[in-house]
């Protein structure tokens, strides 16, 4: 496993993050604690060092299991969790991104994870009712108190993230170092705005559902799912099946699994992208981790790009089409920044 720097910080993070939404059987499709221990050991043996969880993954079991498993090895990992999800559905202040929710959720996570600080705290999703300046100041207070080291944001519009980091820069607060978004061959819409924004702001990108909830593993194209699945066969579109079949074809030609190809594609497109790999068994996880060593040939990348291409839409398509009109012939001789 190779390591990259988190955002504009000096923190070393592994190419692949370990997702632990499957830690615990409370949601009907996760793993028992013994299998979770085996997966954590396999991830560490491969050189992985980032563990991603959330306050309510498997109804809180994920954090509790991790708290039990990490023990004396806790400092070896970059431990990441999230807040925003409600801790009490009957309490309107038990969720959201305001200061009270952050404080309550953070203390809950520290207790569940049996640690004195969170290495990377993610805002789980944009809360439209809380001013972003309140969120950023509350996060900065948590950092200054030593309970959080770095912060990131998940599932938010690009303009919100940009505004948040500009506020942080102007006011001397802790800025977001990472962005977490869904990204896969079947879902490339973040290429329109969010990924270019991350490039411009120097953010690391943690990618959730890089295998499209199993669609890109061959589960629906090579066989009929036997184990419990988060996606029903009837809900998989013909477009997604077409993409999955191309992934299968590339995998067969290279002599690897479909999962490795799909994961390698996400990493091949940008150096700041870190797929979050989750699994229900150590065998699944071991196969996913092998994607770090797979370099896809240019021809394979082109085929996968073509089958999954999307329209960028306005304004990007319009700007691209207007290059000649705007800049003239001389514009073709301008070298872009690398």
UniProtKB/TrEMBL annotation:
<protein>
    <submittedName>
        <fullName>Predicted oxidoreductase</fullName>
    </submittedName>
</protein>
<dbReference type="InterPro" id="IPR050523">
    <property type="entry name" value="AKR_Detox_Biosynth"/>
</dbReference>
<feature type="domain" description="NADP-dependent oxidoreductase">
    <location>
        <begin position="16"/>
        <end position="307"/>
    </location>
</feature>
<dbReference type="InterPro" id="IPR036812">
    <property type="entry name" value="NAD(P)_OxRdtase_dom_sf"/>
</dbReference>
<keyword id="KW-0560">Oxidoreductase</keyword>
<dbReference type="Pfam" id="PF00248">
    <property type="entry name" value="Aldo_ket_red"/>
</dbReference>
<dbReference type="GO" id="GO:0005829">
    <property type="term" value="C:cytosol"/>
</dbReference>
<dbReference type="GO" id="GO:0016491">
    <property type="term" value="F:oxidoreductase activity"/>
</dbReference>
<dbReference type="InterPro" id="IPR023210">
    <property type="entry name" value="NADP_OxRdtase_dom"/>
</dbReference>
